[in-house]
Amino acid sequence: MKKLRSPDRNFGVVEMLAVAFIIGILTQMLLAVFLRQQQKGWETAAQSDVRNGALAQASFFNENDRYMTDIAELSDEGYKTSGQIDLWISASTDARNVLVEAQHCRGGDRFRWTSGGAHTVERVDRADRKC
Fold first, then answer.
1. b/e string for 43-70 if b means 16 or more Cβ within 10 A?
2. Nearest alpha carbon to residue 129 among 43, 36, 28
């Protein structure tokens, strides 16, 4: 004869702990993926801002035979950074060479474009920062 389970039997402590453990592992994996994607988004925004700044600088140079030397001048020409992106401009004294760098304020890699180089955006370093 077949033995039937009693209908009032619930999960035991061991089963509940196993389920909680599995849910904890899955949550940890998903959180790690989310944080990596968030950082990639920050880096993409910084890289995009450097590229846009480089295009603005190149366009300005073609018209004025010099580069813009500070953020205010770049902003006056209509350039705007993405949210929470720090942008730096360093120029030579004669404004014939310029360096444009950007990084998200929450961290990630810094990106750089130089007028005297290969005119490409390069990844520079990683530094954790706070907004």
1. bebbbbbbbbbbebbeebbeeeeebbee
2. 43
Cα distance between residue 82 and residue 87, in whole Å: 10
Residue 101 vs residues 14, 87, 111, 123: alpha-carbon distances, Å: 55, 6, 6, 10
- Residue written as tokens 């990683």? 126
- Who contacts 108 (Cβ-Cβ below 8 Å, separation ≥6)? 39, 42, 43, 46, 126
Which residue bears the tokens 């480089």?
A: 54
Extents of the domains making up the chain: 13-126
Query: Cα–Cα distances in Å, from 22 out to 13, 17, 29?
Result: 14, 9, 11
pLDDT at 30: 92
Contact 54, 114 (CB under 8 A): no
Averaged pLDDT of the chain: 83
pTM of the predicted model, to two decimals?
A: 0.70
Q: Output the CA torsion sign for 38, 41, 109, 131.
A: negative
